[in-house]
Amino acid sequence: MLPREFSRDLLGLAEEVGTEDPVTPLGGSTQWEVGGLPGPGAREVRVASGILEYEPAEMTVRCLAGTTLAELADGVGEAGQMVPLDLPQPQKATVGGVLAVGRSGIRRLHYGPIRDHVLGVTFVDAAGELIRSGGPTVKNVSGFDLCRLMVGSLGTLGVIGEVILRCMPLPSLSAWYCGSADPFELRSRLFSPSSILWDGSTTWLCLEGHPADVEAQARLSGLRPCEGPPPLPQGGRASLRPSDLKTLTGEFVAEVGVGVVHLSEAVPRLTDERTLALQKQIKQSFDPAGRLNPGRTAWLP
Amino acid sequence: MKRAAKAAGVGLPSALIADLRAATSPDRVRVDPLERAIYGRDASLCVGDEPAVVVFPVTPEEVAEVVRACNRHGRPFVARGSGTGLAGNAVPLGEPVVIVTTKLNKVLSVDAGERVAWVQPGVLNLDLSRHTAALGLHYAPDPSSQQVCTIGGNVATNSGGPHCLAYGVTNAHVLALKVVLPDGSLAQLGGLDPEPAGYDLRGVFVGSEGMLGIATEIAVRLMPDPPEVATLLLDFMDVSAGASTVSDVIAGGLVPAAMEMMDANAVKVVEAFVHAGYPTDAAAVLLVECEGLPAGVKASVDLITETGQRNGARTVRLAADDVERDLLWKGRKAAFGAVARLAPDYYLHDTVVPRTRLVEVLEKVYEISARHNLTVVNVFHAGDGNLHPLLAFDSRTEGVMDSVHAAGEEIVLASLAAGGVLSGEHGIGIEKRDLMGHLFSQADLAAQDRLRACFDPDGLANPSKVLPSPSGCGDLRPQVKVPAGAWV
Q1: How many CB atoms lie within 10 A of CB A265?
Q2: Do B269 and B348 share a structural domain?
Q3: Does the residue B427 lie in any domain?
Q4: Which domain-ending residue is among B68, B100, B132?
Q5: Quick one: pLDDT band at residue B404, thresholds 50, 70, 90?
């Protein structure tokens, strides 16, 4: 039972990452500027795509990190399932890319952050070695959780090669509503809506589930049916405590109950000194030569 | 000789004790042999060393001072909650200071609007949900030991529970942690905002079994009580029909809030104990709970009923009210206690397999137990493939401990062979430490150790757990010793 063969794709990736000179992993480049731009001269590394294993009764899917969100959605959609990684540009954005960036989609209110959908990660470390973490089961506390370390690490600790994700049933109905209702009051009145967005005047609401429940909740909300979510400002993203959203002004779309705010300009991120030292220690320890995605920093916007 | 000397209080680290007394208060630093013996054990059968000292801090500042004192004296420390761990996670190795967190037991704040509570690590799991019940909120992870286990301990082992099927285990419910790092410094990991800057240190800390530091304040997510709940009990004449029902329900597009299975032995002992009306001639019963809005719950109940009947369910019982629901759950949650009717001792295992391999692995479990002449009781989280084979035995029987130990290891290896993992919710601790090499390569383990060392370069926090020593074998001391009698 001892391990464990790696696929040709993974072995190839390990070889490509190699053991020296700077590399920058490339996904769909849909969130390319997050954490800074890669330094000049870094060798671009692409990861192969494809769903490797999908068993609907397991509700898990294993795929290569270069798989696009659209490919993934098609692959599991046929069996009535989904992985709620609803990031923009699904035809371009890759699974590895969105996990490395770590930002969740606008239905986080109901489905939780994307890190909670990741069960296993295989990555290439700075020494060119393939490292496995997590596993194929939905529950797993076997050792330290390197999967969660990789999500949001911006490729600065390793290059994600393959992942195992948790699937969920596609809701039988998914519908958007909008109007002028108080979004904070809606949040407490409705049971587990999938998304509440607010731009300071208009409220958008996503309800999913059994049609009769969706209808009843929609009635309770007092909102009218409308086309999907609004366009989100792309220039920046703030992370606030959900209760702090009430005081927002200017141009924004806020995820009510979550605290993500989509803005037109970037905002600084804060972290305490001891935690920052720990972050730097981890980077230093996993990538002593600083060859993984130089120029990008996980704790910058 | 060594034990006798200790019992007389000779050879205790007096300078360390003086520092710990100054850091806390003299009455909360305990060195008497009885207390050291008690805090040398947890709910597992793992045996380690006796702690040098047992300390009961009452504030986060005291925890930090105690950890700093340990650093000054180069003395390892082990944080411990209620000691309900089943893998030796809090069993001391290397005569450490045991830091008991049970006196840090305050719910610090509850924000009903944000649905967040800050709690100290010694708050009992169920007490938190009781505390927030009037607000219509609850804390979702519900380990079977929830009446006695602490939230801090849950964080350390990333605990699960029946209702984690739909809502995720502890990691999905912890937003932020204020921790004392192994060097005695303070840091906040994670935050109440959704995307704290940098690497997910919060996510890494949860489930790290006390090896990355001690959480002194924990921000947890609270969930609204569902408007509608339905609890069903289905019974089957063979175990595989029950397991197929589980797979079919999930393949049918439904993830219930909980989906628990008990086999014939479990049903018999539970029914005799709880009188919940479980059919005692069944080969397996399935306890399923659906939560949410009314139409969705109704549709789920119909789907489960139909799927069960298609798989040969003999009866499908829907709990009529909360009283009946509580009774059905009481059977499930009291199962491990009820096993005392079969034999005085038990060893509870924890492995996870892909849900479609449940039947095959269960059959292996029966075969292995029979071969070792052991009674096995299976009560488990069927929905997420998390098996809990419980070997019941009488430790006074000559040679039985060897059989228990051998059977346990065979069960774990059979789960791994079916594509499973070592632990679903109990953790690795001492129990499975030396099995990690079956699941991970040297490079994988080295990467895990690299992460650990970033938090704790000196290896003072709960040393010698989870990761096998680099040599992989040839430890000076056998780490898993099975005692003459089990304390359960």
Answers
A1: 11
A2: no
A3: no
A4: B100
A5: very high
Contacts of A293 in chain B (CB under 8 A): none
Q: Are B450 and B456 in contact (CB under 8 A)?
A: no
If we measure between CA atoms, which residue out of B53, B49, B29 comes closest to residue B40?
B49
**Domain ranges, residue B79:** 2-100
Task: Provide the CATH number for the domain around residue B332.
Answer: 3.30.70.2190
> Measured between CB atoms, which of B181, B197, B299 is closest to A271?
B197
pLDDT of residue A157: 98
CA distances from B221 to A142, B87, B105, B131 (A): 24, 27, 18, 14
Residue B367's φ and ψ, nearest 5 degrees, are -65, -45
CB atoms within 10 A of CB B168: 20
Q: In this complex, is the C-beta atom of A153 within 8 Å of any C-beta atom belonging to chain B?
A: yes
Q: Is B154 found in the same domain as B246?
A: no
A4 and B CB contact within 8 Å? yes
Candidates B100, B175, B383, B149; CA nearest to B159 is: B149
B413 and B358, same domain (yes or no): yes
Compute how many other C-beta atoms are within 10 angstroms of the C-beta atom of residue A238: 23
- Based on the fold, state whether residues B218 and B116 are members of the same structural domain: yes
| pLDDT value at residue A173 | 96
The beta-carbon neighbor of B199 closest among A212, A213, A279 is A279
Q: Which two tokens stand for residue B198?
A: 């940098």
Taking the C-alpha atoms of residue B2 and residue A110, their distance in angstroms, rounded to an integer, is: 58
- Please indicate, yes or no, whether residues B355 and B396 belong to a single structural domain of this protein: yes
Quick one: tokens of A93?
């954005």
A82 touches B275 (CB < 8 A): no
In angstroms, rounded to a whole number, what is the distance separating the alpha carbons of residues B79 and B33? Answer: 19
How high is the pLDDT of residue B470? 59
Domain boundary among B372, B388, B417: B417
CATH number, residue B412: 3.30.70.2740
Q: Are residues B232 and B314 located together in one domain of the fold?
A: yes
Contact B388, B408 (CB under 8 A): no
Kindly state whether residues B211 and B243 are assigned to the same domain.
Answer: no
pLDDT band at A271 (very low <50, low <70, confident <90, very high): confident
Q: How does pLDDT run across A73-100, given as a tens digit for each residue?
A: 999 999 999 999 989 999 999 999 999 9
User: Per residue in A142-165, pLDDT tens?
Assistant: 999 999 999 999 999 999 999 999
Top residue of B170, B444, B465 to mutate, by most chain A CBs within 10 Å, is: B444
3-state secondary structure of B10: coil
Rounded to 5°, the CA angle A217-A251-A69 comes to: 60
The rounded mean pLDDT for chain B is 92
Which residue in A104, A94, A92, A20 sits closest to A291, CA to CA?
A: A20
CB B94 within 8 A of CB B35: no
- In CATH terms, is domain A8-169 a member of 3.30.465.10? yes
Choose the closest CB to B454 out of A59, A137, A282: A282
Domain boundaries, chain A: 8-169, 173-263
Residues facing A195 on adjacent strands: A206
CA B410 to chain centre: 21
- Give the number of domains in chain B: 4
The verdict on B217 and B288 lying in the same domain is no
The CATH number of the domain holding residue B55 is 3.30.43.10
Of B315, B319, B270, give the one whose Cα is nearest residue B291.
B319
